[in-house]
Design brief:
By secondary structure, the protein is of the alpha+beta class. It is built from five helices and six strands; from the N terminus they run αββαβαβαβαβ.
Length: 174
Amino acid sequence: MKFKFVIVAAMTAMLAACASTPQEPVTTTETSTPPQTTRTVDTGSQPTGPIPGTTDHFVATAGDRVFYDFDRSTLTSAGRETLRRQADWLNAYPGATIMIAGNCDERGTREYNLALGARRANAARDYLVSLGVSPSRIQTVSYGKERPTCRESSERCWALNRNAITMITGGVTG
């Protein structure tokens, strides 16, 4: 019995020594889009970041969401800065198309939040257009309070849910 145990233990140790672990892609934020592959250095051991022109590259370099104050659809200075980076990225990749989804926190009626989400998405779209992004490349949708990022009933979560999320819908690699 001891002999079998020693053989099994030795085989397990050999297999463990020969096993390699696959490299995981780098994901920068939680998004609804699947992660893209990352490039690696020639040694294959160090990721160098998302491949340019991919959805992950957009999220990593520009950011995919802007946040709004309670019951507001006006852009904050931080939101305008994020949208400036998005416009720069979109102007560098003119084939990319996007959808901007307006979202709200759980407070208020469904109808009110759908209208507020639409105003938020349209505010983001209008700012991108003012920065040179063609309106034909942008779609908007409002999810109101139906697709929260955070599900807790707290001010921290409500603030996270008051946003407009920009999603790449076409024209990128990977």
